[in-house]
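Predict the 3D structure for this chain.
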Amino acid sequence: MADYDAFENRNSSQRGLTLVELIVSFTLLLILSTIALPLARVQLNRAQERELRRSLREIRTAIDRYKEASDRGLLQVELESEGYPPDLEILVDGVEVSNSPDKKLKFLRRIPRDPMTDSTDWGLRSYQDDPDSTSFGGENVFDIYTRSQATALDGTQYSEW
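Done. Predicted structure below.
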């Protein structure tokens, strides 16, 4: 019985954490969280950058397919358009095929969202614009870019992609 009382007294004095143990635990948790937050932010930026590259590739591929179809004579295009689409909506709405007016060619299901601006409002360049122009000439859509002025993880501007 004496052994049991000694065991009980020893455990009752060691039930909680001391103030020093709490401070050390809290400090370790704080250090780990300050390391984890920037890493999580970088991972989020990387995911947005992947989504931006995918969206740019999808729209640019659709523009190239439109140009290829117009070069092959499948589409009737305006003379000054150089065979490029007049806007992005036509890639979604579709264009009548020259030799079959009841048939439409569609190049996109929908206009992809720009993950940097969280909209479908892309910057447009026409064939007649300068390669680094930020104002749209309006003749046709030769290229697109994001309207975000943010800087990528590699140091370049997103709008230059």
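The radius of gyration is 30 Å.
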